[in-house]
Amino acid sequence: MPERVIITGTGIISSIGMNYEENLNSLRKGITGIGKNSHLETIYSDEIPVAEVKSGNRELRALAKVPQKSLFSRTSLLALIAAGEAVERSGIRNEDGLRTGLISASTVGGMDRTEIFFKKFRTEKSQGRIREVISHDVGDHTEAIASAFGIREFVTTISTACSSSANSILLGARLIENGILDRVIAGGSDALTLFTLNGFNSLMILDKRGCMPFDDDRNGLTLGEGAAYLVLESETAVTKTGKKGLCVLTGYGNACDAFHQTASSPEGDGAYMSMDKALGKAGMHPDRIDYINAHGTGTKNNDLSEGKAVERLFKDSLPPLSSTKSYTGHTLGAAGAIEAVFSVMAIEHGCIWPGIRFISKMKELSFEPVTSLTTGTEVRNVMSNSFGFGGNNTSLIFSKC
Amino acid sequence: MEAYINGISAISPQNTFSGGLLPIEPVGYSGIRSLKCIEPKYSDFIDPMVSRRMSRIIRMGVCAALKCLSEAGIRNPGAIITGTGLGCVEDTGKFLNSVYENEEKLLNPTPFIQSTHNTVAASIALLLKCNNYNSTYGHRAFSLESALIDGLMLLNEGSAENVLVGALDEMTPELFSITDRLGFWKRQAIDNLTLGNSGGRGTIAGEGAAFFMLAGSRTETSYAKICSIRMLYRPSGIDETKSWIREVTGNGNPGLVILGINGDEKTDTVYEQLIEEAFAGIPALYYKHLCGEYDTSAAFALAMAAGILREKRIPEIMKTGRFPDVVPSRILVYNHLRNTDHSAILVESC
Amino acid sequence: MEQLEQKLKEEIITALNLSEMKPDNIDVNAPLFVDGLGLDSIDALELTVLLEKKYGLRIQTSEEGKKVLYSVKSMAEFIRSNNKG
Questions:
Q1: Which domain holds residue C34?
Q2: Is the CB of C42 less than 8 angstroms away from the CB of A204?
Q3: Would you call A152 and B115 a contact, using CB atoms and an 8 Å cutoff?
Q4: For helices A111-121 and B89-101, what crossing angle results, to 10°?
Q5: Which residue of A has its CA nearest to B128?
Q6: How far apart, in whole angstroms, are the C-alpha atoms of residue A198 and residue B96?
Q7: CATH architecture, domain defined by A251-399
Q8: What ipTM describes this predicted complex?
């Protein structure tokens, strides 16, 4: 039997909170992080809302405990803060002789700093401060965390667009099951950048009112930023250290929609397959899922396709479903991990997070997202979906210990 | 965990794609600071209507993937995994330029869509209509290695019968001028084949796309068997690197090592120290004079290792120093990128 | 009249990188998407940018987009009807 994979710690920073407690509080109170930008400089400030982390880089550097003079990208700062919290909350130490790995994920990495450099560089190749660009690649923020926590044996970065950090959690679980590592810090980070804001704007899929996942009148997503990390440990390691696990990662599935570069198939075939694989891995019938944290970006295409796939798979046993992107916006490479943390929180606190910013049911679907907070209920199994460009779809299932 | 390499296809600055895999007749370039791939005629492999949006790196990747699949006789792989240090650089630069050029207005979406690291793996899946496991790693000189480890695990788990693993990176004029300012490259233009004794700081830039078809069992097209892949981030010093290498090779030395020597006198000292100690008495080859330096260059070395094991001959151009007449059955590929990301891949004949 | 259609064909070939295609291969009345030329939603976005950049015309809704981008002919008509003043 492969090792069971236990979640022993979580850390998070997003537009709805700088840490675990603040995020939890915002979810309980239904407070969204979507609004006008105050850090990113763009001509779309008055037109397109975003879900920014509420601190500037100066405050983030202080929180990440790095010198004010350092040139960490915003993605690295968010990563250092969230990973630091996950490590602290799990109580793992580097000295206890366990094989530890780090898997992070990002789509734009240090693009925020590259943009500062590029503005000058593009007109004159000798211009721009060259040190601004060393954090450009998506692996840079991972090495920042690895250096900060002394992780050396297994350090890598996944970049599968919007499912990136769901895949880092999936890989972490498999490394433990295959006996390669005893524990893994897995997650992802992405900062808001001009690059992504303009990219999604060029695709005409940014809702100018802010995203409205699974609403009949939805018109696109809202970009967010943030980072989240989970500490995954083998059951043997957990037993050895006498720790208490938060929950178990029981299922995961990765499938490729292979339909179109950006659009999902109308019936959500890839989504269906990744959810079905995750249930298969967990050895679970669909009726055992108590809550689905949907990908639910708020684009016309995603919500319809995901909704159809959920209907097809869950049939009469459809559990409460919501998209917490209505709080955090779409945090791209961080989304899978942020939503994984929200899924773990649901199990820990016996809550089902309501979708907010919802008005009317989609005509094409038989269901609508859950819109009121449920507390004091036993949440045993949560499914979290993350789908990306290129049809990279991943589903995870978290279960009570 | 182990896996058989049952197909290889590599687009590189050598004739690895259209000619034989091994550079028996190496391609020399004089007066260069950067090596470019010898590209195939893409329309022989991809319908122009399908490839019309694809940038150079995507074409290279898709083309190499398709040839690799066909060599191994696989139509629908059990998984597609790619590794790339910097991803789709050309499209990223193109879109970033357009953001400033057009002051954020009326931007063409295509380069943005294709700027994501997973574009190549996704494009292959789309072409093959392959719904199976699909992932992409983007971590400097661990990109290929991570993809291989993922692939070996899938085979070990029984999640896939075969796995297509590829690694690729492209060089663009813009990227060259940025990395040049970072001091990565030699100041003087050189002849690539003399890289090993060029002296001084820096190396030559390179690029490439290599794909490997991995499977749990040996077939008629098998090249070699991957026995171990390990990564080490920022070793504390040469002693740690040495003991780590001993762990990778286990009992018994490899008959041959392929090293990432790149002509930079500062970082090459790591290889020199290992040649004197951990690799003492083991014939050593090097490869970066053939493909240049890039994040996933170890993929070129792995292709060479597999080719040598299958063909049982060693290209003269890869040899360092005095060389005994050996036909090794076990090769260790060891590379490091600027003494930060160290990786080792152990391959055996099969 | 025909001049605009010819010009549009050339612009479409450049914008969508249809390098294997000649303007004569494109039938002005044939649908550009799916069954016709086989374009997709990304091409639709590129054509929307083209209309706005070269002709200063903005497509307001996706319904309008479907009508305007149906064929070379419909694109030309959209340009002509908006340029009459």
A1: 2-83
A2: no
A3: no
A4: 60
A5: A258
A6: 9
A7: 3-Layer(aba) Sandwich (3.40)
A8: 0.98
